[in-house]
Specification:
The structure is a single chain. The chain is α/β, with parallel strands linked by helices and 251 residues long. 25% of the residues lie in helices and 23% in strands. The protein contains seven helices and 13 strands. It has helices at residues 26-34, 53-56, 89-104, 114-122, 148-151, 165-170, 229-242, and strands spanning 6-10, 12-16, 19-23, 39-43, 61-64, 109-112, 126-128, 156-160, 174-177, 184-187, 193-197, 203-207, 214-217. It has a nine-stranded mixed sheet with strand order 4-1-5-6-13-12-11-8-9, with helices on both faces. It has a two-stranded antiparallel sheet with strand order 2-3. Helix 3 packs across helix 4 (114-122).
Amino acid sequence: MPNRPLVGVPMDRRMLGPHPFHVVGDKYLRALVEAADAIPVPLPSWSPPLDMAPLLDRLDGLLLTGSPSNIAPERYPGGYGWDGNLLDPERDATTLPLVQEAIARRLPLLAICRGLQEVNVALGGSLYPQVHAVPGMLDHREPADAPLEVQYGPAHPVRLAPGGLLRRLAGRDEVVVNSLHGQGIATLARGLVVEATAPDGLVEAVRLPQVPFLLGVQWHPEWRACANPLSRAIFRAFGAACRGQALDEVA
């Protein structure tokens, strides 16, 4: 099919048995192909990071996925570690500079869960290492032993900011989303604007108005993206931005 944009997708570096692998979840690739009508281009995560500039010149967009891993605590103010905290320093080394490169090139960027947190940290914001440990905050983690349908099922409502992109895509003030994260935004990075908030006040989505398209969401719209109207609209708008279309054409 002509005019399908190429979207870079940084991979996780994970140990599978005794060997390190570079991996990316099928659900993210499937959402790009089926909902955004784009071709995913997996990118290796490396430390020190590879020079991605020649490749970025050929890409039309960038997707930062969720992951079981967390951003290393030394990457942001107030971070701390704990036993069992899964890290991926190679991904940190790759994605944090990529955010800045994408913004400098005005490359459309969609960031999901860990990806949202990467955007915030890359631009100077901070995180709650464990949201559930903060007084007054909800436990945003999924039930670990539940079936996937339950883990990715509706978890809590979010309020969509008046005049925001998500409010326009959803056509209403509130939607119910899934929730599968332990970390979350504590201090919002300069330049980002809030697109959605959870009932406890946690930032659930952000946008960077200075570029044509940068949207980050804390939930997982890639899960069965075509079956959810807002998820489908998010990926459709991202795909349109990667093709250089105005958002008014797809709203």
